[in-house]
Design goal:
The protein has 254 residues and is an alpha/beta fold. It has helices at residues 43-52, 69-80, 90-94, 105-120, 196-200, 203-207, 212-230, 243-252; strands spanning 2-4, 24-31, 59-65, 96-103, 124-130, 142-143, 147-154, 167-168, 175-182. The strands form 2 sheets. It has a 7-stranded mixed β-sheet, with helices on both faces. The protein has a two-stranded parallel ribbon with strand order 6-8.
């Protein structure tokens, strides 16, 4: 069962990209728990690999373990540094189109990397948190001001569960597309490939990581952002099952 837990705003972006150089589109996924960043059983890694096989100009993709934030940040810097001088110019920052996502501690890592990019002056198009669990310091329920759009998927059963609501640090800049609750009485079939520990320890929390309904929505949101970039900043193409499209449908439903 899926429920929209709060009002959701229409997708927004800072400005049109007409007349600018080709953007560098970066999609980075972070794994939860103690999962390696190359575990092919994970839906997020499968999604990253599908994206990498698409012929999308300027697209860079990668997946990391949640403890590899430093490595991810260095890779993002390398991709954006088209001049190769170790520093980001104003133009390189302006041409950045960064999407960060993750489950559990991976969601926390995505938010922390977004905050690090904020210090660099790099904007983030979208953050996606899937039952995000804060790791160590910080507050992963607060979305940094450099993020244009954010979406949150969560469940409420069991000992571990994510943010029920995202709070933008700057509501005038960040739009929360929605906070979407999933309820589990049993684990989805996708969990069968997981280890016994992952299937029985924190069952409902781990269920979100193997639920194809969740990851279909996540992939739709990511593709919607990529299409917005490809159209040069014009109205994005949003599949009917994307968070932005579902949000508008919910708001207009009598």
């Amino acid at each position: 069962m899926l429920a929209r837990s709060s009002s959701a705003a229409t997708r927004t972006h800072a400005s049109s990209r007409e007349g600018q150089h080709q953007s560098i589109i970066i999609v980075v996924a972070f794994e939860g728990g103690f999962v390696r960043g190359d575990d092919d059983h994970r839906f997020e890694i499968q999604m990253i690999r599908r994206l990498s096989e698409e012929n999308i100009p300027g697209l860079r993709t990668a997946s990391f373990s949640n403890w590899q934030r430093g490595k991810a940040q260095a890779e993002i810097l390398r991709w954006l540094d088209t001049e190769g001088n170790g520093h980001l110019s104003a133009a390189e920052k302006q041409n950045a189109d960064v999407i960060l996502l993750g489950h559990s501690w991976g969601g926390s890592a995505a938010v922390k990397v977004a905050r690090h990019l904020e210090k660099w002056g790099v904007p983030v198009l979208l953050t996606v948190q899937i039952d995000s669990i804060n790791k160590l310091w910080g507050h992963d329920c607060v979305t940094p001001a450099n993020v244009a759009n954010a979406v949150n998927f969560f469940q409420t059963r069991g000992l571990a569960h994510g943010c029920r609501r995202l709070w933008p640090a700057d509501p005038g800049h960040t739009h929360v597309l929605g906070n979407y609750r999933f309820d589990y009485t049993k684990q989805p079939r996708g969990c069968r490939s997981f280890s016994w520990v992952n299937r029985h320890f924190l069952r409902t929390h781990n269920a979100m990581d193997c639920d194809d309904r969740v990851w279909s929505r996540v992939e739709s949101d990511v593709l919607s952002e990529i299409r917005w970039v490809e159209t040069g900043g014009n109205a994005p193409v949003e599949p009917e099952y994307s968070s932005a499209a579902l949000s508008r449908a919910a708001e207009t439903r009598p």
